[in-house]
Design goal:
Number of strands: 21
Radius of gyration: 21 Å
CATH superfamily of the largest domain: Probable inorganic polyphosphate/atp-NAD kinase, domain 2
Largest sheet: 6 strands, parallel
CATH topology of the largest domain: Tumour Suppressor Smad4
Structural class: alpha+beta
CATH class of the largest domain: Mainly Beta
Shape: globular
Mean pLDDT: 91
Strand order of the largest sheet: 4-3-2-5-6-7
Order of helices and strands: EEHEHEEHEEHEEEEEEEHEEEEEEEH
CATH architecture of the largest domain: Sandwich
């Protein structure tokens, strides 16, 4: 579901590292934002990144994560790749603050706005020319594990083996009904947003983010009939994992936790979605086609032109 909000008055800037090749572009972006008489603030991590890159952060206040309840910005602007957006989703802890990803990395589905020429796009965004997509998140109920406040995941929740080469056994029930028992290196529970991430590299399907669905995707399953399964988002998964090692690894997006085996936990839809800022003309299918080069064929020489039909050669 999308909605079109009001013009932007306040922004929080976040990022972890500013690469040497991006310093001038980030500096230009910050100068642009300063000139628009906006209320700007930085996370502590981005202030450190700016200082390390030799950028001037004078006059911009630092806003700790705990202050987001009292003074939430209109949007959060992240500098980095999809990992930085995932980090921001964890930082928000379910708070309904939209996030716009400025891509300084390579392939990005969440940080879709390239740093090159981003100022031009931001001119329209600041005036309200953008949409906000609601992306479903997953939550983990695991009292025995010390997950702290970061028990939500935007892309995926994964349980997998840690220190041994042998497989683990993962049993899954949904709302009390047995689904499957996997002998594998692990199991990915992926959201639609995460279907273009780890799950995709493990042979999972691409799911449109408007779909209220998740993917159960075993990692290197031993049984040939075990394949990714798409199931409804709603409901609760009861997952039990065990193996020869005394410990397993539980991963929520980019955060990993060592847990004792056997591990029993629940996965359910998070109470609140993640809010992703997009340009009005951005379409998920078009983004996937362009970034993953869908429909391109080496037999067409230069791989053809996207959106252009080609006539098959005669033989």
């Amino acid at each position: 579901m999308d909605f079109h909000p009001a013009p932007i008055q306040s922004l929080l800037l976040h990022g972890s590292v500013i690469a040497e090749g991006d310093v001038s572009a980030v500096a230009e972006m910050i100068d642009f934002l300063r000139s628009r008489n906006l209320t700007l603030s930085l996370t502590e991590g981005f202030q450190e990144a700016m200082t390390a890159a030799g950028l001037n952060a004078d006059g911009i206040q630092v806003l700790p994560a705990k202050a987001l309840d009292d003074a939430p910005p209109d949007i959060i602007l992240t500098f980095g790749g999809d990992g930085t957006v995932l980090e921001t989703a964890a930082m928000l802890e379910g708070r309904p603050v939209p996030v716009l990803g400025i891509n300084t990395g390579r392939l990005g589905f969440l940080s879709h706005l390239s740093i090159a020429g981003a100022s031009e796009a931001l001119e329209s965004i600041l005036a309200g020319g953008y949409k906000v997509e609601s992306r479903a998140m997953l939550a983990v109920d695991f009292p025995e594990a010390d997950l702290g406040p970061h028990f939500r995941a935007l892309n995926e929740i994964t349980v997998h083996r840690r220190d041994v080469a042998s497989m683990i056994r993962v049993s899954v029930h949904r709302n009390g009904v047995f689904v499957n028992r996997y002998w594998s290196d692990g199991l990915i529970v992926s959201t639609a947003t995460g279907s273009t991430a780890y799950s995709l590299s493990c042979g999972g399907p691409i799911i449109h983010p408007d779909s209220n669905a998740i993917v159960l995707n075993p990692i290197a399953p031993h049984n040939l009939h075990d394949r990714p399964v798409v199931i409804p988002l709603d409901g609760t998964l009861e997952i039990a994992a065990e193996g020869r090692d005394e410990h397993l690894m539980l991963t929520l997006d980019t955060r990993s936790h060592t847990v004792s085996a056997p591990a029993c936990f629940k996965v359910r839809p998070a109470d609140r979605p993640f809010l992703l800022v997009q340009l009005p003309e951005v379409d998920f299918i078009e983004t996937v086609r362009r970034k993953l080069h869908l429909g391109l064929d080496a037999r067409e020489g230069d791989f053809g032109q996207p959106g252009q039909e080609t006539r098959p050669s005669s033989r």
